[in-house]
C-alpha cells in the first residue's frame, strides 16, 4: 500500500504537467489555424514510379495550407481533366489520384508524366514530375539453340540475353537444381554464364537461364542449353585471357552515391585468380567489397574522389593479363542549401537562397506558383540574382510559393518555399496567470510565447507597476522566455510580458513562486548488525510547507522486498529479524513536484562471533578547512577519522553548488589515503561547499560535515562539455547528448550533415544535456559540436564529433546464398553482403536461420529453428550440429542496431547419411542350458537407412576348464549399421550353463535390420536374437510340465541302466546294447577323453573357415557342408509359421536333429565360443 500511494502521487504530478503542455499546444494550434499560410507539399509519389499492372494505380499528392488547398494535375505537360475520366478519382480532402484498372482497362493507357499542383489564395506549390510506368515481364523470344561441343580445358560463355523488363530482371542459372558457382564457373553482371575452362563434369543437357521479375513476382525461363565436353589427352594448359571486358582499357561512368561495380572474368587453365588495384591510390577502406570470387569489385556510396583508373590482373602459373577501367564519377544535383519558408511583414526585406552542387554543375531556375519566374506576374519587391531571390519592402500581394529547380543531365531537384507576407498585431500564446514554481537556488524559466508580423519586441516587468527588467541577473531568450539563473525567495511575484509591434501591443501576467529546497537533515548511516537482530535507518527531511513530499526506500536500487519484516515509518526504515540476504545498500528518496533528494547507507550482516573483531568502514573526516582562495583554485585540508582496524586507502572529495543545485553532491576528485590536503580546480560562478569521504577495504565512510562556502566570480567557460555523442533514437531524428561541465551554463549545439557541404545549424539550450534534431534522413553521418557559454561569453571552439541519425530496419536481403555440405553434421553457408547503404544502420552481422524441413519415414519431424549470428561484415559461416540424412532450409538476414532485415529466399540442402547412434537398449532374457534370447531397441537416431546390426560376443572368462561343470559368462557387443558405417555399440553380459569346454576366440555377426529374430548354435550354446518389435516367445525349457517330463524320463533311464548293469554283471546281453552297437547315431558321438572336448569338434575342424552364402536345398534336407544360420532357413520349413508381426510361432529350441526340414546345423561349426548369425 505504501508503494502504490507513493507512485500514485508521482503519477498525478506527471499527469498535471502533461495537461499543461497539452493546453499550451492546443492554444498554439488554435492560433495557428487562424493565420493564412501558402500551400506546402507534404507527401508525393517517387519521381520514377513503376506500378504493378494488375493493381490500381495510386499517385500520391498531399499538401497543407490555410485555407486548405485545392488540387489539380497535369499529364505530359497538359491539364488532366479528372472529371472526364471515369476510371480516375481523387481522394476527398487530398490530391491523391486512384486509377481503377480492374474493369479491363490496361495500365499502359495511363503511362506518362504527372505533376500535382496544390493551390490556395496565398500561392501554389507543385510536386515533382512523377513518371508512371507499368512493370513488364516479357517472355523470351523463341530461338533454336545448337549444342555446344567444347574441348576439355577450353573456355565457354553461355549467353543469357534476357528479355528487356521493367524493372530489369534478376538473372540466375540452374540445371536440374541450383547450379553451383566457383572461381572456374560464374555468372557475369550481364547474366551470361562464364567457364574459365570446361571439365568433363560440365557436360549437361539442361543449362537454363532464368529471369526473375520481382515487381510482378514472375519467373521467365530460357530454353535449355546443351553442353558436351570431349576430352583430349593430354589437356593443354593455357595462360589467362580476359573474357570480359575485352581489350586492354575501357571506361565506366557512375553517379555519386551509387554502387560502383567493376568486373573482370578470365579464361585459362589452371583457373586464373583475379586481383584489383587502383592506380595511384588505395581502394577506399570500409566501402570496398569483392564478390563473385573476386571477379567483381564493388565500391558503395561512391563520390568524386573515387574517380580514377582501376586495374584488374588475372594470373595463373603460365602468366598474367590485365585490363584498366577508367572510372568517372558524375553527380546528379544535391542540395547545399535548400530554400526555406520565409514569413515577412509588410515593408520588411528577406532572401530565398537555393544552392546545389553536382557534376556537371547544375543550373538553377526559379518558378513562382508553378510558373517560370520570367513569365510570372511582375513583383517590384523581388529581384533574382542567380541562386538567390532578394525581397525588398514586401507587400501582402508579394505572398507566393517559389520553386527552385536545380538540374543537370543526370537529374533534377525541386523544392518549394513560400514567402508569406502577414500584417498581424502581437498575440501572446502563453495562458494568462500561469503559475510557475521553482526551488530556491535553481533557474526559473518563465514563458512568453508570442506571434506577430512584424516580429514583436518583448519586454518583461516585475509587478503590476514595476520597472523593466534588465541586468546580468536575467537572461532574455529570442522566443520570449525570461530566465532567472538563480531564483531566490525574493524572486517570488507577478511578472508581466509585453509584446509590441507597429500594429499594436499586448501583455500577459504570470506568477512565480520560489520554494524552499527539500533537504535530508538526518541521513541513514552505515550499520553492522548481527543476524536475527533489528536495525533501523533514519531519513529525517525538511521541506517547503506548501510542497507534499513522498518518501521511497530502495534496496540496491530496487524496490524493497515484499516482506513483513520491513517496516516503513514516517522518518525511518526498520528491518526486523535481520538475515544474510538483507545485506546491501538502502536508499531514501524524497520527491516533491519540484525537486528530489536522496541519501544511502550500507547494511552489513555478520555472525555473533564476528562482530567484536569486525573491521568496519572508517569514521568520516573532521575539521575541513579552505585556504589559498584564488579565482580558479582553492586548497582543502582535513583531519582523518578513525580507521577502525582497516587502513584508509584513499579520500573522495565531493562538492555542492549551493547557487544552482543545492543538495546535490558531485564528484570532484580523490587522493591517496596518506594525503590530507588537495588543491582543487574551480569553475566560475559556482557557490562551492566541499565534503570528504574516507575509503578503506571494507567500504566508504559517511561524508564529513560540509566545508564553508566559497563563491567564485563569473567568467566565460574555459572548457566544453565532454562525451558528446550523436545517436538517433528513431529513423528520422538525431539525439545529441553530452556531459555537463559545470552548473549554470548554456550550450550551443551545432550540427550539419557530413560530406554535403552544408552550413551549420545551431541552437542554444540551457539546463539540459540532450537535444533532438528531427526530420533527418535515415542513418546518415552528421558532424556535431557542443560549445559551452554563459552571459560572459563562449568557451573555446569545440572539436567536432561524428554521429549518425537514427537507424531503420535493413531494406535488402543477402543474395547469392550458397550452401556447401562438408559432412553429415557440418555445412558451410556463403552469401553476398548487402550494400552498406541498404543496411540503414550500424552493421552488426548476419543471422542465419536453419529449419529442418523434410520428413523421412523413420525420422521424426523437427520444426525447431536454429539461429546463428555471424558478427561483422562476414560472407560465410559454419553450421555445426546438423542431423545426418536430413533436409534443411535456411535463410540469411542482415542485422543492424534496429533489428533484422528481410530474409533471403529459402535455400534447401540435404545432409548425407551418418553412422547411427547405439541401439536404445540390449537385453538378454530366458537363459537356459544351451540358449540365450537377445532383445534390442532400434537406435534413437538412425541417421540414415539401417542396413544391418552387428553382434560381437565372447566369453568374459576366457579359461580352459577341465573335468568341471562350470557356468560360462558371455559378453555381447551390439551396434547398428548404415551404408556409411557402424554406430556406437552397447554391451551386455549373460551366463549359460555348460558342461565343460574351451573358451576361445572372438567372432562378429552381421544381423539384418529387417529381420526380428534368429537362432545361432555352437557346440553347447544357442542364442536367440530378437528385436523388441517381435512378439515375445515362450521358452519350452522353462515350462513346468516340460521339466517334470524330463525328470520322469531321466528316472526311467536310470532304472533301465541299473537293470542293464545287473544283467551285464551276470554275463548276459540286452537288446538296447545290441542296437547301439549295430546302429551308432552319427549325430551323437562320445566325448574324447583325452582333452574333454566334444568329439565332432576336433582340432582339425576348429580352424575350418565358415562357409557363407549356402542355403537349404530345395528337397528340404540339410547337408552338413551347406550350413547357414539364416532366419530364412529357420522359417521356410513346411511347418514354419509367422505371426502378423513377422515373429516365429514355433520355438527355436524345439526339434532340431531328427527333423531336417525344420533344422539346419553345420558340420563345419566354429569353435565353442564363436557363432555367426546372419539376418541377411
TrEMBL record:
GO annotation, cellular component aspect: neuron projection; plasma membrane
UniProt xrefs under Pfam families: Bravo_FIGEY (PF13882), fn3 (PF00041), I-set (PF07679), Ig_3 (PF13927)
Principal place of residence: membrane
Subcellular location: Cell membrane
Annotated ranges, domain Fibronectin type-III: 620-715, 720-808, 813-914
An individual GO BP term: cell adhesion
SUPFAM superfamilies found in the cross-reference section: Fibronectin type III (SSF49265), Immunoglobulin (SSF48726)
Keyword Transmembrane: yes
Region (Disordered): 702-727, 1071-1176
Origin: domain of life: Eukaryota
Residue intervals of the Ig-like domain: 39-127, 134-226, 239-330, 333-420, 426-513, 517-604
Bilayer-spanning residue ranges: 1041-1062
Biased composition range(s): Polar residues: 702-726, 1160-1176
Membrane topology per record: Single-pass type I membrane protein
Family: Belongs to the immunoglobulin superfamily. L1/neurofascin/NgCAM family.
Record-linked PANTHER family: CTX-RELATED TYPE I TRANSMEMBRANE PROTEIN (PTHR12231), NEURAL CELL ADHESION MOLECULE L1-LIKE PROTEIN (PTHR12231:SF257)
Protein name: Neuronal cell adhesion molecule
